[in-house]
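Notes from the 1:1 (GR / supervisor)

We went over the backlog. Supervisor wanted to see one worked example end to end before approving the batch request, so GR pasted a single chain during the call. The sequence is below; no edits were made to it. Supervisor asked that the structure be written out right there so they could see what the output format looks like.
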Amino acid sequence: MYIKLLGAILVLVGCGGYGVMMAVNHRRETAVLRQLSEATDKMISELEYRLTPLPELCLFASQQTKDALSRFFSELGRTMDEQVSPDIKECTNMALSRTSGLPGYTVTQLQALGQTLGRFDLEGQINALMQCRQACLRQLEVLEFQQPQRLRSYQTLGFCAGAALAILLF
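Structure output shown during the call:
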């Protein structure tokens, strides 16, 4: 009897924990996208007014962000500065592989940005940064639409699924 009760509690906590984890990941994705949007805006200003070289621009972006995004920009600036590869796309992929903790949509945007940085003139690079910023803002709008209700639903559904599964197994 105690083993069944312990199992039911563990199922409930496990499913509820999964719902909470989904809510935490949603909040993290939103925060990192907001950071990337703000960083690209500042990078645009740096390029327009100071004509900052790309390795320095990435180090500047790493100072403007925090956590995984800061580590990514720092790693990207270092790989470009060391000239590990002449292709910025390869440097971006290398920096992404060395950086953990970046949400999925952010990785996609950084890969797209890596394909265009360093390939065009100043105006083309500014346009690429603007496109990245706009894509981040669009995704932020999608993620933030009814965010409190969605996060509450994730958590509630996790615990309800756990309770239903525990009842079925008990």
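Supervisor's comment: The chain has a mean pLDDT of 87.
Batch request approved.
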